[in-house]
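thread: overnight batch results

M.L. [08:02]
morning all. the overnight job finished for the chain we discussed friday. pasting input first so we're all looking at the same thing
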Amino acid sequence: MTTAVDGPLAADGVGVTGVSKSFDGRVAVLDGVDVEVVAGSTLALLGPSGCGKTTLLRIVAGLELPDAGTVRVGEEILTGPGSYVVPERRRIGMVFQDWALFPHLSVARNVGFGLPRSERRSSPRIDEALDLVGLAGLGDRMPSTLSGGQQQRVALARAIAPRPSVLLLDEPFSNLDASLRVQVRTEIHGLLVELGVTAIFVTHDQDEAFVLGDSVAVLADGRVAQAGPPDELYLRPVDRWVAAFVGDADFLPGAASGPVAQTVLGPIELEEPTHGPVDVLVRPEHLELDEPGASGASGGAAATVELVEYVGRDTTYLLRCEGRTLRVRRPSVPVFGRGDDVVVRHRGGSARAFPVVGPTGA
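M.L. [08:03]
and the structure it wrote out:
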């Protein structure tokens, strides 16, 4: 994909305030959603199926009307009480999940479809968009002759050809196989940065959200459960559900006394002082393993390796420790095998803790 870009697009910020939507007047798909996207940045809408991500994207695009709330791009209210700007006048480009290419039109005519009628068959903007996505010279081809990755790029070229101020992408990589998905994701990431366009994209994949999103809004049951930079969501989730959704998470029961909780792994420093029974969030990379009786090692708990998952860049161990499963991830080839006895320790640093409500903990 080329990196020659004729300057950044004219980006505008996006503000969504109090947006609610229900279908048939019954189930609330969105319930008072607020999100803010800084001009030139990318927001990832992350959440499970049915949480309202795509509905919110379609409301921003003007393809759905909310029951309440406003949508603002720059200083202009596009949707709100007494205001509605039709989709074709919003300067918003959209890449659909299934790409929505016209099979009877050439690549060039697909890309030119969103341009003024006089430019749809031939325009420098068509050539520029195809060049940007690495498809220069393929304008005469038909979509059916392209690979899945190339068709996805045609859909992106069509969205950026009118030079929108906001770009919306709905699960843009879902129809690609795993290896191509990572490659195209990296290319699109670089292109979004070079274009400087404000982008909102929908995904249920935490890796995609964290890689592409300058900020991430996690949706659950039609509401924003938490929004912020990826590292904030990962290290400081607001509750157990968000903690588990944005990455591998184990929860150690503990007894908190101010800044420290006593757990099966020993004392763990807490990010915020608290008192009483808690569940301490432990990420797999926050733990380390040793052989029993290793020289210079102290503390920790005895455990047994139940599974070893090696993926090249790192190894994840699933341990049985005090009747529960813990995951440990280390950036190395496997050094322990199934059935090995080990000692597992917390590597230090402060941890997030959630007060236990009710008679039981984790």
